[in-house]
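Quick one: structure tokens for this chain, please?
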Amino acid sequence: MKRYTVDELKNEFAKLGYTWYPFMLVGIRSNANIPNEFDDLVGVVEGDKISWYTATTNPGTHWLKNLLNPKGAALLKPGQWVDSWKVGMHQGKYEALTQVKSITVYRDSNKNLIAEESFAPGTIQHKYTKLVADTHLSEKYIFHIDSDSIITETITLEDLFNNGKPYLDIIPYSHLLSHQNSEEFRNYMKEYVEKYHLPSELIKELNKLGITGQERISGWMSAHYDKWKSNNFNKWFEDWFERWKTNFSLVPWRAGTEAAIGHSVLYEFSQKPQKTYPREVYSKARTIIETNFGCSLKEFIKTRIGKPIGSNKNLHFSDLNFLGAVLWEHFNERMHWVDVSISKYTGPNSSSNKIKQYISYDIVDPVTKQLRQDYIKEVNEILNR
């Protein structure tokens, strides 16, 4: 951690628009943001002198887990907080700096041991969380699993590693795109959408026409659904399928990854919900983004979007595909690559038998819905024992 001189600190203050005072306390928080570690610095400025002390600006794990405030343990937001403390008695027990003005804090309400800033929609900010995973852990390898997945059997090291190298499944985009554009896949999607997805999509269309409310929608569906499907489904599906390919298929995943890494990529790197990465990949990934975009990772993430529409597909950032591309280019020998090219694309449910993924944001058939409900019930029963 850099210990700034007074002149260096004055320059940093000027960049941030802070006011310089002849006496003040300055805190510098480590990027690691690790609870129970004295990995930060606190400086005491007195005129032209500054004394630095090892300290922590993070809540400890005890208070992160045992909340005094139901909103979560507090972490002071970075900024300049003038005349916000004075010398007083802490809880009437001992002399300390006590707060006398309102300040802004982040809170860890989900007890994940990280009191963090909310700077982007949840589906976007979680990408930032993954790309800084190494700052929260000291282990050599970090395991990720998608939130809509359930581990159904014990995972062993043999499931994750081959001769000390993490497995990572990949598949050529050429293979995926070829199948996506095939008549076989089009017919499969048409049958699937008609069977499971059409009613919900049609309700969206009805809402646009001002037909809302369960009673009105049910009445329209009873009176017109079969006739509408007979006369309009084929054309409707062709329009829907083209929109799906443009906005939600493989195109934006690839485009967003290529935009982030700065060149073309040949493989899709997120074939299974579970991934194990060496910790070195995260800092390398952050450096690539900072170099390519001239900004911090946080500022980069703020510019990404969750739903790629038209020309915005380059902004649809896939964190795990990006990490996979970085691994392929810079840590290729550290991984055990598995090309899972197959004759028929089976999607994300083609994961190992020990991990089941139930897509929380896409079309789900009734059998999968029931299985997901059964697993949730079983998990809740275990948690409540």
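The chain has two domains: 6-108, 122-176+250-383.
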